[in-house]
Amino acid sequence: MKRSRSRQLRVLGIAVSTRGIGFALMEGENRLVDWGVKAAKRDKNARSLSNLAKLLAYYNPEVLVLENTASAGSRRCPRIQALTKRIVALAEGRRIKVKQFSRRQVTFRFFADGQGTKHELAEHLAGRFPEELGFRLPPKRKAWMNEDGRMDIFDAVALAVHALRVGAGNDGGRWNV
Fold first, then answer.
1. Domains of the chain, with CATH numbers?
2. Which of 37, 93, 141, 165 has most Cβ atoms within 10 angstroms of its Cβ?
């Protein structure tokens, strides 16, 4: 008798930013496996793609999730939009399913009225994964401050959690991968 081994869907959330990329690897909705930021200083797109290629080779995810920078209302700069397109091409070239969601879609997943801030979302995720992310929660940003680089991690986790919830709603947590 053959037993099929049930394995959780492995999803890599990527948050592209002006500093590089934030990443979060999840196996199922409740297991945050790894997370971090890969900084890119010079030739940011090429370095970000190189860092992502290493992450894809190491983790071998079934699904890659990132922000849809071409969606209506997206205010991402042309460099980030171009990088996002190259990331999609890289993942698809490795036969990894790609899911893209607007920031609005992700916000509505966590806040029924869609009115939550990035910091409120980060607080929610730090509460959900206290051992993994609790100590990484940056202080609330003041209007004159730059966004803390650690926020890229929370953006990546939010994308991955959202993708897993959408997938769970469609076909029991599994996409056709």
1. 10-166 (3.30.420.10)
2. 37
